[in-house]
Amino acid sequence: MAPKSCLYLTVGMHIQMKSILDLFSLTKNRKSIPKAWCGLWADRNGKQVLIESTKHHFYAVTVLDSGGEPFKIQLPGDTPKNTIGLTGSFGRDASGNPTLQVEAGINDLGPTYNLYFLVAESGQKLRLARNSDDLRHIIIKPNVGMGLYDDWEDDLGVPWAFPLEDFKKAKNEKPQQALNDHK
User: What's the domain range around 173?
Assistant: First the structure.
């Protein structure tokens, strides 16, 4: 049996190493999200976001209204589509913060629906979520990234994205049946 001093040293190193790993594994260098962060999220108005993992750090993101119906995307020069299975990937905003950027229009031209995974600390100050954070405390804060041709529109080309309300992980992992009706 190891002496007590060795046990304290081992436990102390484990805690210190976990803190170091948390610092390096998440915030600014994030390229993907933990599997537990995928699934259904809902805002207080009933809008739903379903995040599904695909290959190579891409995601299929579906946005539904409070009745479980997809929104329609209609941008000039593009064919209309529903907000089902939109392509999402991790990128950086203008401040260098990682965000799940969802293509809400024409791929690589925008607009984008940007999803930030955050946790409220004491005093309600927000910080980037870490892999080790309790899922019940993580929120998704959405924002809209302007597309190439959207500066003339008040809604930045994504009227369905508004109002921008925080999402929380849903207890029920199944979105409304309407999702299956539109595939």
Answer: 34-181
